[in-house]
Write a structure and sequence with these properties.
- By secondary structure, the chain is an alpha+beta fold.
- It has helices at about 15-20, 55-65, 85-90, 100-105, 110-120, 130-140, 170-175, 220, 240-255, 290-295, 300-310, 385-400, and strands spanning about 1-5, 25-30, 45, 70-75, 125-130, 145-150, 160, 185-190, 195-200, 205-215, 230-235, 260-270, 275-280, 325-330, 335-345, 355-360, 365, 380-385, 400-405.
- It has four domains: about 1-95, Rossmann fold (3-Layer(aba) Sandwich), CATH 3.40.50.20; about 125-190, ATP-grasp fold, A domain (Dna Ligase, domain 1, 2-Layer Sandwich); about 195-325, ATP-grasp fold, B domain (D-amino Acid Aminotransferase, Chain A, domain 1); about 325-405, Aldehyde Oxidoreductase, domain 3, CATH 3.90.1170.50.
- Helix 4 packs across helix 5 (about 110-120).
- It starts with a strand and ends with a strand.
- The mean pLDDT is about 95.
Length: about 400
């Protein structure tokens, strides 16, 4: 019996569980939370921390020892920043994956930036900081604003946009509180539109299936926290810009040591052309890979990632869009406080073009101050003939929901 191992069993991982089973695999999920949502879809479960490579590997070895009729065919994750865990399991069982060294680079933003510099991959200026004076010196060199972030951050946790008015001692403590390894870096803030790219490296060549405009219209509202309010496809890019981003992501992936595998790009279109903010060696979260990209382009990157993980051939033609629709996602941002009522969710499905919606909060729960992406209250994904129609539909859907907050 061939096993597909999925690291992480959160709600966004559910699509991979469903596809894995549909493709004929015995799907085994790992998560430290016994009530993880995707466990309901799994054939078997393993309780282990997704962020602990050794714990996960030991648990998988034990599972296979206790189930001699099963053979591990592949290991994947999505919407989960655990490249070292995936690579550790894959290396032990000699399965297709990025290498351990590439995974370590992907897990450490500072190391990633150093690799980019060594290979002349355009990226915003950066440096490791050990005190607030280091931040001030960097800002004097680059000019304010600058971005402070944990080298091991996830989901915009601890990422702060700083100017000369900010209390740097507060900023230091706030950002450091989100770092497990207790290391921070500062980065020059490059003005320009930001793009999410979702690509697959196949035999050293990059094939980008989707580009999306990242929506930072709420940047001033949440400052100094950097909060993204969704995105829109297709991105407003020329054919040359798309080629340039694809070429840039390819160079970044090769610099990291990734010749085959998924690479998710965070790109800024700066005054001197595109540059890489970060590269993640996984499929995107925010339902980008699972829902938005298939709706907009017809490309199912989750299925292709499973094929890659089990050693099946993925060809460039499989990564080419077959349709061209507008798709937009936007988030709910109710005020901080106790939620007394949520009105209108039951009518969202009646709004033309709405394809998916989810409310993370329930009546009686607390809506926290928005400091990172997990603090958003929910989302709507809408589809249209083009980007303008998709954006109009998603706005109508978001505006139709009322929150009563105490």
């Amino acid at each position: 019996m061939k096993v597909l191992l999925i690291i992480g069993a959160g709600v966004e991982q559910g699509r991979a569980y469903e596809l894995g089973r549909a493709m004929g695999y015995h799907v085994v999920g790992t998560d430290m939370n016994p009530d993880a949502p995707a466990f309901e879809i799994a054939d078997d479960v393993i309780l282990a921390s997704t962020r602990d490579p050794r714990e996960t590997l030991d648990a998988v070895i034990e599972y296979l020892r206790d189930n001699p009729d099963k053979t591990l065919a592949g290991v994947i994750t999505l919407a989960n920043d655990v490249p070292v865990t995936v690579a550790t399991v894959a290396e032990h069982f000699d399965l297709p994956s990025i290498g351990l060294e590439a995974a370590r680079v992907a897990a450490d933003k500072l190391l990633m930036k150093k690799v980019f510099n060594e290979h002349h991959v355009p990226t915003p200026a950066f440096r490791h900081v050990t005190c607030t004076e280091d931040i001030t010196r960097a800002a004097e060199e680059w000019q304010w604003p600058v971005v402070l972030k944990p080298v091991d951050g996830r989901g915009a946790r601890g990422v702060l946009l700083l100017d000369e008015e900010i209390d740097l001692q507060w900023a230091w403590q706030e950002s450091m509180g989100f770092s497990t390894v207790k290391r921070l870096m500062v980065e020059n803030f490059v003005e320009g539109p930001q793009i999410s790219s979702e690509s697959m490296m196949v035999d050293g060549k990059c094939h980008t299936a989707a580009f999306a405009d990242r929506n930072y219209q709420r940047l001033e509202q949440f400052r100094p926290y950097i909060i993204e309010d969704g995105g829109t496809q297709p991105a407003q890019l020329t054919a040359y810009q798309r080629w340039a981003i694809n070429d840039l992501v390819e160079k970044a992936a090769l610099a990291m040591g990734i010749t085959t595998g998924i690479v998710k790009g965070d790109i800024v279109m700066g005054p001197d052309g595109p540059c890489v903010i970060e590269i993640a060696a996984r499929l995107s979260g925010g339902y980008f890979a699972t829902d938005q990209i298939p709706l907009a382009t017809g490309v199912d990157l989750v299925q292709l990632s499973i094929m890659l993980a089990v050693g099946e051939k993925v060809t460039p033609i499989m990564l080419k869009p077959t349709v061209d629709y507008g798709v937009a996602i936007r988030y709910f941002f109710p005020p901080e406080g106790i939620i007394k009522a949520i009105r209108g969710m039951e009518k969202l499905a009646e709004i033309n073009g709405v394809r998916k919606s989810l409310m993370y909060r329930q009546v009686g729960e607390s809506q926290p101050m928005v400091k990172a992406h997990p603090d958003r209250a929910g989302f709507v994904i809408a589809m249209g003939a083009g980007r303008e129609e998709a954006q109009a539909r998603v706005k109508k859907a978001i505006d139709s929901i009322d929150f009563d907050i105490d």
